[in-house]
């Protein structure tokens, strides 16, 4: 390892310098700092080692079982909602998966709704229309300043609990709304539906190719092509046409009132709806402020220049303002996504079966393995946060100002 | 959740000290017993309008405080939900857990805890609205059932419905109170819990007379106080504090007549229980009059039963299985000699 190039004075040391000129090991700041870091690391490692060893010894002394064997044992309790096949005979490991998927579902649904709502509100707050701007400001200030847990309770207890019983359900388009949730007909694909699916994916590929072609053409000739409209037309139109031509190969499993409740169809439980509403509405108010800050950060000169070129207001917003605003918006937006994901753990307050409720709740309590269960739960939230962060950073780097 | 996390952290830190001080010394030094109770189940542990905790489980805490500190009021009650309770006990947040907790093999052998007795023999049942006209749990096919999370109740229900081929949807809440409210507001067709607690929670519903229990009792639920494993002195103290209450009832000692009996009785059993004769406080590391203090300040088991869950209370539960063995029930304490 050569050290000559890293001297603080930056000068090139003479070759074959007498050893006396070389600083003593403890006088070399680089080596010294390295030494202290190694010492600190060793001390930290020792502390962690001691904690883990002690914990294990003490757990054993008290006759508490440790390890992850419990994950393969039969769970024996039911869960109200699961995206995968789950029965009481499934293992504790499956309860982890069910909880994890339910957490991811609510996080994705929440992020999707909060982003759309937040962008609309953020832009609306800057609108020239007094009514729209004030409405948006009012919304943001109200929902930003009420604790999330209260909002969850509000939607769950004040709104959804007051819905009628299954026998007096509100009915619309073959769906039913009652205090057990929203029960919708479930689509059942029949023979020939595969063609529709193929058509859907083919349309996506075609849209992507058109977008590429149109960008190239614009760079060469300056002519524009209505890419978005064409894509929407393709993605909706192609599957729809195939669907019609292949003789409507889709049955519907209609829910029916039998005994206590509806049988068949898809049930969206009220806990999910309440949590989704609360999380999206709450986070949207923060995203709206982030978007407003981003738009205000774009120099007014940019808008004026666009107006001078005769661009329409909508086009200015879409092509000039928003792309530049995004650079400011993305980092705080990432934080909001992370917050939303972590806040979804408040689900346990109303009984939505998310990871914290199912795994860090019931499973922990049935097995008593607090350390393992809590460690796994924390690892999940850490991983989800890191993944979100990683994706958003990648996206941020992609849309950063590129100079040509 | 937060408490579980904190408890898990405390658990890890507490366990870094290899030798923990005995619970008896800790309690004496602190001058108060820390007792884990429910966050509110009428008849078992619930604070009254002045903030005093009352109930059958609360009386177990009070009897331990009377035995150890000579003062039944020196108890700090810590409300815990079902998910938090064992972590709170094992991590040292509470000295005793007296919280409608069912004695099971897994809990006794794998969680680092010991059950010190059974202060209520219970069984699990189902509450339904009477207007549905149901006569059996088997009519509940397809029903939605509200239940508290992390309980044996949840497991018993799953087992029972599975073996009888009945489909159901569980809706799980943090506390029994929330589950009962959800049932009351129509979120579920049925609410399941131990029948004693169901009786208590029913009194809080909008129209208690419109709610009834289905006839089946689907499980054995021996409920009792719990201590940490590995502290035999403390285990014995809690065990015998409760036994003293049972023996007092059997001997006819009550809080009203205990002073008179102490002065006059010649019955050797009474003399032993009141610390005038026999093993006294030796072996338990307690004052000789420890059992006298329990009877004087808390009363015997029968008194506690009647005022909290029995005839004199809004619950109005029969003694049933909880009558003394001499009356045809299951309550039986080893002799004090």
Account of the protein in words:
The complex is a heterodimer of chains A (404) and B (337). The longest helix of chain A has 34 residues, at 92-125. Chain A is an alpha+beta fold and 404 residues long. Chain A has helices at residues 29-61, 92-125, 130-144, 148-159, 193-221, 227-245, 270-297, 300-308, 313-343, 355-367, 370-399; strands at residues 170-172, 175-178, 181-184, 186-189, 250-253, 256-258, 261-263, 266-268. In chain A, 63% of the residues lie in helices and 7% in strands. In chain A, the strands form three sheets. In chain A, strands 1-2-3-8 form a four-stranded antiparallel beta sheet. Chain A has a two-stranded antiparallel sheet with strand order 4-5. Chain B is of the alpha/beta class and 337 residues long. Chain B contains 13 helices and 14 strands. Chain B has a five-stranded mixed beta sheet with strand order 10-9-11-8-12. The longest helix of chain B is centred in the C-terminal third of the chain and has 20 residues, at 232-251. The model of chain B has no long low-confidence stretch (mean pLDDT 89). Chains A and B meet through helix 1, helix 10 and helix 11 of A and helix 1, helix 4, helix 5, helix 6 and strand 10 of B. Chain B: Belongs to the bacterial solute-binding protein 3 family. Chain B: InterPro entries: Bact_solute-bind_prot3 (IPR051455), SBP_3_CS (IPR018313), Solute-binding_3/MltF_N (IPR001638). Chain B: Residues 1-21 form the signal peptide. Chain B: Pfam families: SBP_bac_3. Chain B: Keywords: Plasmid, Signal, Transport.
């Amino acid at each position: 390892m050569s050290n000559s190039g890293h001297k603080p004075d930056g000068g090139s040391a003479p070759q074959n310098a007498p050893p006396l000129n070389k600083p003593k090991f403890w006088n070399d700041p680089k080596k010294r700092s390295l030494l202290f870091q190694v010492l600190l690391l060793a001390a930290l490692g020792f502390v962690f080692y001691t904690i883990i060893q002690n914990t294990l010894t003490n757990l054993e002394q008290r006759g508490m079982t440790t390890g992850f064997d419990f994950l393969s044992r039969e769970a024996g309790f039911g869960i109200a909602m699961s995206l995968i096949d789950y029965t009481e005979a499934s293992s504790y490991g499956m309860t982890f998966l069910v909880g994890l998927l339910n957490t991811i579902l609510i996080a994705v649904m929440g992020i999707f709704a909060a982003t759309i709502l937040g962008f609309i509100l953020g832009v609306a707050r800057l609108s020239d229309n007094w009514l729209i701007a004030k409405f948006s400001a009012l919304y943001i200030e109200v929902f930003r300043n009420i604790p999330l847990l209260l909002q969850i309770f509000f939607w769950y207890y004040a709104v959804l609990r007051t819905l009628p019983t299954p026998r007096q359900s509100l009915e619309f388009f073959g769906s039913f709304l009652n205090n057990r949730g929203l029960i919708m007909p479930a689509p059942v694909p029949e023979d020939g539906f595969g063609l529709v699916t193929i058509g859907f994916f083919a349309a996506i590929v075609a849209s992507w190719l058109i977008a590429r072609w149109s960008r190239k053409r614009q760079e060469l000739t300056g002519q524009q092509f209505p890419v978005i409209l064409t894509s929407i037309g393709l993605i909706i139109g192609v599957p729809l046409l195939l669907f019609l031509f292949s003789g409507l190969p889709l049955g519907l499993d209609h829910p029916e009132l039998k005994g206590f409740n509806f049988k068949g169809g898809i049930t969206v439980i009220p806990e999910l709806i309440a949590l989704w509403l609360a999380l999206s509405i709450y986070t949207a108010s923060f995203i709206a402020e982030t978007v407003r800050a981003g738009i205000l950060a774009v120099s007014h000169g940019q808008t004026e220049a666009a107006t001078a070129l005769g661009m329409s207001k909508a086009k200015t917003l879409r092509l000039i303002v928003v792309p530049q605003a995004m650079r400011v918006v993305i980092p705080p937006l990432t934080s909001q996504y992370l917050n939303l994901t972590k806040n979804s753990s408040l689900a346990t307050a109303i009984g939505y079966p998310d990871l914290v409720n199912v795994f860090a709740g019931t499973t922990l309590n049935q097995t008593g393995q607090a350390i393992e269960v809590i460690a796994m739960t924390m690892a999940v939230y850490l991983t989800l946060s890191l993944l979100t962060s990683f994706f958003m950073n990648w996206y941020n780097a992609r849309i950063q100002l590129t100079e040509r | 959740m937060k408490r579980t996390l904190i408890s898990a952290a405390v658990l890890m830190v507490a366990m870094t000290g290899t030798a923990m001080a005995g619970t008896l010394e800790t309690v004496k030094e602190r001058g108060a017993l820390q007792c884990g109770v429910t966050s509110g189940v009428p008849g078992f542990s619930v604070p009254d309008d002045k903030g005093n905790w009352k109930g059958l489980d609360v009386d177990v805490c009070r009897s331990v405080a009377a035995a150890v500190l000579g003062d039944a009021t020196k108890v700090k009650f810590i409300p815990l939900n079902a998910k938090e309770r064992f972590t709170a006990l094992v991590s040292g947040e509470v000295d005793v857990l007296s919280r409608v907790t069912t004695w099971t093999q897994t809990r006794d052998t794998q969680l680092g805890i010991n059950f010190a007795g059974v202060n209520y023999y219970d069984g699990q049942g189902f509450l339904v609205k009477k207007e549905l006209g149901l006569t059996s749990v088997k009519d509940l096919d397809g029903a939605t059932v509200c239940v508290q999370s992390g309980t044996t109740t949840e497991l018993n229900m799953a087992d029972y419905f599975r073996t009888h081929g009945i489909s159901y949807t569980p809706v799980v809440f943090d506390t029994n109170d929330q589950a009962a409210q959800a049932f009351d507001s129509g979120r579920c067709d049925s609410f399941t819990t131990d029948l004693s607690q169901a009786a208590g929670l029913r009194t809080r519903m909008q129209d208690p007379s419109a709610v009834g229990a289905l006839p089946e009792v689907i499980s054995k639920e021996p409920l009792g106080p719990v201590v940490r494993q590995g502290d035999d002195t403390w285990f014995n103290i809690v065990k015998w504090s409760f036994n003293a209450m049972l023996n007092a009832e059997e001997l006819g000692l009550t809080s009203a007549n205990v002073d008179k009996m102490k002065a006059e009785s010649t019955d050797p059993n009474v003399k032993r229980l009141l610390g005038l004769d026999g093993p006294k406080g030796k072996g338990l590391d307690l004052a000789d009059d420890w059992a006298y203090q329990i009877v004087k300040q808390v009363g015997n088991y029968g008194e506690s039963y009647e005022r909290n869950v029995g005839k004199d209370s809004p619950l109005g539960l029969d003694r049933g299985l909880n009558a003394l063995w001499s009356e045809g029930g299951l309550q039986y304490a080893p002799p004090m000699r």
